[in-house]
Amino acid sequence: LCDSGNVNLDAILNSKISLAEKNGIRVDYKAACPANLTVSDIDLCALIGNLIDNAVEACEGLADPYIRLYIGVLKNQLYISVQNSAKEELDFDERNYISKKRGNHGLGMKRVQVLVDQYGGFLNLQNQPGIFAAEVLLPLTA
């Protein structure tokens, strides 16, 4: 499905996108990954995996579920954007990035924030009625 230029990123994207589509979620995506990353492939895949998992979960039970994913370079930074359809009210405490759900631990956004901080990046979360958006900027040079 996806050929971003990074084999490990492609593996996680292809897996997550296939799963989302299998669950009836429309996925629009574009991914171009530069060779000069400061973030490790493992951390990048953990970050992307958590963002997409959260988006898939947010789409569960919605009438018109969709995810929009973009990965590219913006002003010498790796830019990651994940937008998805969502309920009117979120299930987690935005301030602490911890969900209120039980069973699954719900620490995905906290892990994303830790990784973004570790690489000196920026995380922006926005919720409007019916839409959730997560944007990540990670420096491409140390």
Mean pLDDT figure: 89
How can the largest sheet be summarized?
5 strands, mixed
Total count of helical runs of at least 4 residues:
3
**Helix-strand pattern:** HEHEEEEHEE
Strand elements, count: 7
Ends apart, CA distance between termini: 31 Å
Question: Main sheet: which strands, in order across?
Answer: 1-2-3-7-6
Q: Classify the helix fraction into a percent range.
A: 25-40%
Describe the structure.
- The chain has 142 residues and is an alpha+beta fold.
- The protein contains three helices and seven strands.
- Strand 4 and strand 5 form a beta hairpin.
- The longest helix is centred in the middle third of the chain and has 19 residues.
- The chain is globular and about 45 Å long.
Can you describe this structure in just a few lines?
The chain is of the alpha+beta class and 142 residues long. It contains 3 helices and 7 strands.
SSE diagram, text form:
Blueprint: H1 7-22, E1 26-31, H2 41-59, E2 66-74, E3 77-85, E4 92-93, E5 98-99, H3 108-118, E6 122-128, E7 131-139
Parallel strand pairs: 1-2
Antiparallel strand pairs: 2-3, 3-7, 4-5, 6-7
Helix pairs in contact: 1-2, 2-3
Task: Using brief descriptors, characterize the structure shown.
142 residues; alpha+beta; 5-stranded mixed sheet; two-stranded antiparallel ribbon; 7 strands; 32% helix; globular
